[in-house]
Amino acid sequence: MITLVDLFQSSTSVCLLVAIVCLLVFHRFHSSFSSRLQKRAPPGPKPLPLLGNLLQVDLHRLDSCLLHVRNELSKIYGPVFTVYLGQKKTVVLAGYRTVKRALVNHAEEFGGREVTPIFYDCNKGHGILFSNGDSWKEMRRFALTTLRDFGMGNKVSEGKIIEECHYLMEEFEQREGKPFNNALTIHYAASNVISAIMFGKRFEYKDPVFQAMVERDNESIRLIGTASILIYNVFPWLGPRLKNWRVLMKNVEANKEELKRIIVDLKETLNPEMCRCFVDAFLTRKLNLEESEIQDSHYHDDNLIYSVTNLFAAGTDTTGNTLKWGLLFMAKYPHFQDQVQEELSRVVGSREVRVEDRKNMPYTDAVIHETQRLANIVPMAIPHKTSRDVTFQGFFIEEGTTVFPLLTSVLHDESEWESPNSFNPSHFLDREGTFIRRDAFMPFSAGRRACLGESLARMELFLFFTSLLQRFRFTPPPGVKEEELDLTPAVGFILSPSPHELCAVSRQ
Ligand code: HEM
């Protein structure tokens, strides 16, 4: 029989014993350290194995459900909390102060993009919207400078938008006084503004190829927000079995093919000395890099096609839907429409509206801002990802964690807005009726990933909205009362108004 004394007499046994003691100490230290980390992680509802918190969230309106979770349980969890979508840990940021602190004060740490399975399928990690690292940095920088070179936010794009206003007005005139569902007409106008910058040309609204491209984008953006695609992100092996996934992939491929055709035409007539558009500028940069024999540049065909598809989609559905919300609010609240039209008649009269009129039209400016605030079209921004470990508001969040900055909770924050859930242009006006900026107005998000088309979008919203209201009075169709106009958004990644009809009645 071996006694303890015998054990200590053998040197091998002593080593073994020391090793065991060390392991025990390490294990104890490690578990207490991990549990300390666990303790400091943002709190949240208890997840089930495999499903996480999927059964507790409404996948049809994830944003309002998370907001609800926040409102209901904020006393327990506060403005930074964790939900598990399946096994995927997701940190939700809610409320103006928290979202701003994360995206602006910790811009680097919260500036990564979460490329969910569906976003990867659609973009393969290229382009601007769903990429990361040096490639994203270079593509974003190139897009910003090139869009500005071709007019974004200046007189050149003002001219393009005013030209497009005429075409849009013609469409409305053809249906003057008759009820119509303007479905994608406004999207065509928005799409033509970004197309003019990207391809140096606009499309006829009746062009079937153009119509199909806009329709496919619109449908894809809607499908990305459906429950089945959210489930696909959690269980990617389901993909080909889901109808919505198959339709989405078909749409993405078809649009890629159409855009490739446009790029090939531009390539054939390219003159590097005289760039006509965004695509020309990209191709010229690519040629120059190839001539200098620079290897591994980010200026390759994939980045070109995906940057173009990103800008086409991001520049169309967002602005188009915001304008549709604006016209719906005007038809539903005619007293606000009266005041916009009174200001338009007083400041502009019957001449063409220009961007410089905005500073003399505080009421109209406030109505457009309030439209963006209440419509809240990108309710959860686009998912972010932490680019490194970060301690935020006392919580530890590991590198690579998915983050939802809930823009809904900023634009409808009860501590920031006097009447967060109703249409109230006074949010943006002082007692004297002067326009006031509000910090919590964040529909374009903030920080490193903030919308890069903001200046173009703001110009489009002002010129399209005022031109339409100068010419037409928007009303519900005959037999429908204002209060019957439904403001419930349709399900989708971008919130659009549910299908509805309005009448555009000529004011002249
Ligand atoms: C009313 C119109 C628009 C709204 C409300 C809007 C809103 C947004 C939001 C919320 C994001 C996500 C920011 C984040 O992840 O934190 C975004 C990203 C983006 N937007 Fe817009 N947008 C609008 C119009 C446009 C237009 C006209 C363009 C094209 C010129 C555009 C191009 C982009 C791009 C490329 C990104 C990705 C930025 C990145 O990941 O680095 N957007 N936008």
Automatic annotation (TrEMBL):
Its main location: endoplasmic reticulum. GO terms for biological process: aflatoxin metabolic process; organic acid metabolic process; xenobiotic metabolic process. Heme binds at C451. Residues 242-269 form a coiled coil. It is found in: Endoplasmic reticulum membrane; Microsome membrane. PROSITE patterns: CYTOCHROME_P450 (PS00086). GO terms for molecular function: heme binding; iron ion binding; oxidoreductase activity, acting on paired donors, with incorporation or reduction of molecular oxygen, reduced flavin or flavoprotein as one donor, and incorporation of one atom of oxygen. SUPFAM superfamilies: Cytochrome P450. It holds the Pfam family p450. One of its GO terms (cellular component) is endoplasmic reticulum membrane. The keyword Zinc does not apply. InterPro entries: Cyt_P450 (IPR001128), Cyt_P450_CS (IPR017972), Cyt_P450_E_grp-I (IPR002401), Cyt_P450_sf (IPR036396), Cytochrome_P450_fam2 (IPR050182). Belongs to the cytochrome P450 family. This is Cytochrome P450 2K1-like. It comes from Cyclopterus lumpus (Lumpsucker).
